[in-house]
Amino acid sequence: MTGGPLYYVYVCTVARILSCSAAGLQDGQHFLSTLLERFKDGSKSPSHFTPDMYPELRSRLYQGDIILPVSRNAIMSDYYKWPKAIIPYTIHYNFTQDERSKIRMAMDVIESKTCLRFVDKNSENATQLLKDVGHSEYVHIGRERNKGCNAMIGFHREMGGPHNMNLEAPSCISYQGTVQHELLHVVGLLHEQARADRDNAVIIYWENIDK
Questions:
Q1: Residue-wise pLDDT tens digits, 6-58
Q2: Topology of 53-192 in CATH?
Q3: Has keyword Cytoplasm (predicted)?
């Protein structure tokens, strides 16, 4: 497996994805070094990766980690953006204090680069702020075992309950980039490879691919 085309495509793809988050670069480098170790003896290929190694593989969700409402399969309108760029959230009590800190740090990174604000629904100063946004929707960050890392995509006023996001511990919280990834699904972002304009920036040289 080492040195084969699938090996290089896989590693380069992971490297490209991880490089998109400067804040998660150190985590990404550690992740890649671990990944390379798995490939060294040629006994592990992507097809050998198990759900225990990568919880994202457990679910049959859209692209592995996106929870879509039954009625639609993509974010198409401003209607699905969180009003006033405020995202209320709760964190399940099963998370340790260290895990809670990691989740909040991931939120802080996103807030530092955008106009978005993540507001703890149960905090003392949240009452008036949440009243101003004009809805009762919020994100609940759970820690269910065997549920992997996943999140509902975007804002849905008609939910009438929490927008679920799951971070199976410790796997999904080992790297800050993973937490950021799921939070950005909550914001409403799909994977880059799913963009409508993806093919404008990708050239595939089919003649160079072994059949």
A1: 444 444 444 444 444 444 444 555 555 555 555 555 555 544 445 555 455 44
A2: Collagenase (Catalytic Domain) (3.40.390)
A3: no
Alpha helices in 86-175 (DSSP H): 97-113, 126-133
**Partner residues linked to 150 by β-bridges:** 166
Yes or no: say if 91 and 141 are a contact pair by the CB < 8 Å rule: yes
Q: Examine the residue annotation and report whether 158 is marked as an active-site residue of this protein.
A: no
Residue 163 marked as a ligand binder? no
Is beta strand 86-91 parallel, antiparallel or unpaired with respect to 117-120? parallel
Give me the catalytic one of 56, 99, 168, 182: 182
Cα 47 to Cα 56: distance, rounded to the nearest angstrom: 14
* Residue-range domain boundaries for the chain: 1-49, 53-192
- Quick one: residue 85, left, alpha or beta (phi over 0 = left, psi -120 to 50 = alpha)? left
- Per the annotation, does 92 bind a ligand? no
Is residue 185 annotated as involved in ligand binding? Answer: yes
Let me know: does 107 contact 118? Beta carbons within 8 Å. yes
Listed residue (175, 143, 165, 151) closest to 54, CA to CA: 175
Q: Considering just the CA atoms, what is the radius of gyration of the chain in Å?
A: 19
